[in-house]
Amino acid sequence: MSSTAGKVIRCRAAVAWEAGKPLVMEEVEVAPPQTMEVRIKIAFTSLCHTDVYFWEAKGQTPVFPRIFGHEAGGIVESVGEGVTDLAPGDHVLPVFTGECKECAHCKSEESNMCNLLRINTDRGVMLYDGKSRFSINGKPIYHFVGTSTFSEYTVVHVGCIAKINPLAPLDKVCVLSCGITTGLGATLNVAKPPKGSTVSVFGLGAVGLAAAEGARISGASRIIGVDLINSRFEEAKKFGVTEFVNPKEHSKPVQEVLAEMTDGGVDRSIECTGNVDAMISAFECVHDGWGVAVIVGVPHKDAVFKTHPINLLNERTLKGTFFGNYKPRSDLPSVVEMYMNKELELEKFITHTVPFSEINKAFEYMLSAEGIRCIIRMDE
C-alpha cells in the first residue's frame, strides 16, 4: 500500500475552464479510487486531435470545467475495492474505451466494443457513483472519456487500464493509448493485407501514418498515401509510404486515378480522414473480387455514405473499425511488446516534447499542423 492510499491527493492539473481558452495550471484535489477504480500517477501524456476537438467544443454538448487528456502512461498509486488484477507500482496505459470482460462484446472474439465501458464523450463523472474524483475548493472538475490524463494523478475504471511490461519506456508507449494503435490495428487486424499487396492510405496524419506502418509491417509492396497536403509525403516515407497522390492535382476522381495506377484497384484501402467523400473514394478504389476497404475516421453526424450496390456485388468488402479492433486490457500489452521487440517503431511518431507547465505549447503545435504527437513530461 502506498502512503497516500485512501487519502485525497493534491496535485497539478491543466484545467479547461471554457471552450477554446488556454488550459490553466491549477491545484486540484483527487479523491481516492472507489469500487473498481484505480488511481494512477501519470508519468507522460500526449496530445491527440480528439482532445483538441472537444476542447474547441465542436459539434457536441460542451462539458466544462474539464480535465482533458487520454493518451498516457503511468504507475498505479492505489486501487479501490474489488480491483484484483492491478496493484500499486504496476505500469499501465489508461485507455478511452474499456473491457469489462463480462458483456457479450467482451466475450466475443470479434468485438472490442464493451457495453459498459465503450467511449462516452459526454459523461464527465465516474460510473460507480456518478461523481467526479476531481475538485477545486469543493467544486467538481469533470472527467474526459474516463481518463483525464492532463493531471499528475487521475482516477480510472479498472476496465479501462492495460497493465504493461514495466521495462517499456512510458515516454514512448504512452502514444499507444489511442491514435497509433487505432491506425495500426485497422491494417493488421481488419484490412490484413497479404505480403506483397498494394495498400492505399487516405489521410497522412498520425492515425494514417500508423496505418501505413501496419502495411509496412505486413510486407506490402506498394503503400500509396492520399492526402491534400503535399508536404506530408516526405514524412510519410519513414512509415513505408512509397507513392503519393493529391486528389486536388487530378481532374478525375481519385479512385479512378488509383485504379489506373494499380491495374484495376488496390488490394487494401484504409481511410483515416473522417471525410465521407474520402470514405467513398477509399472503398471504390479497391480491386473487385478481393479488395477490402476499412473506415477509421469519424464522419460528421449528418454525413451519408453513397455508392452503387454493384461495387459490393462485385466482391469488394467494406469494413469499419473502432480502436483498431484491439481489446484494451487483453490486446494492448501485446502491442507494447511489438515495440519492445523492435517490430514497431514509435520514436518516429513523436515530434515534440514539452514540460507539463508548457502544455499549451502542445496545443499550438497541433493547431499549426506541426505536430504528429507531442509528449508532455509530467515530472519537471
Automatic annotation (TrEMBL):
GO cellular component: cytosol
Lineage top rank: taxon: Eukaryota
Residues annotated as domain Alcohol dehydrogenase-like N-terminal: 37-164
Domain annotation Alcohol dehydrogenase-like C-terminal: ranges: 206-338
Gene3D superfamilies per record: Medium-chain alcohol dehydrogenases, catalytic domain, NAD(P)-binding Rossmann-like Domain
CC cofactor: Zn(2+)
GO BP, sorted A to Z: formaldehyde catabolic process
Subcellular location: Cytoplasm
Catalytic activity entry: a primary alcohol + NAD(+) = an aldehyde + NADH + H(+); a secondary alcohol + NAD(+) = a ketone + NADH + H(+)
Quaternary organization: Homodimer.
Record family assignment: Belongs to the zinc-containing alcohol dehydrogenase family.
PANTHER family reported for this sequence: ALCOHOL DEHYDROGENASE, ALCOHOL DEHYDROGENASE 1
Descriptive protein name: Alcohol dehydrogenase 1
Species annotation: Dillenia turbinata
Lineage: Eukaryota, Viridiplantae, Streptophyta, Embryophyta, Tracheophyta
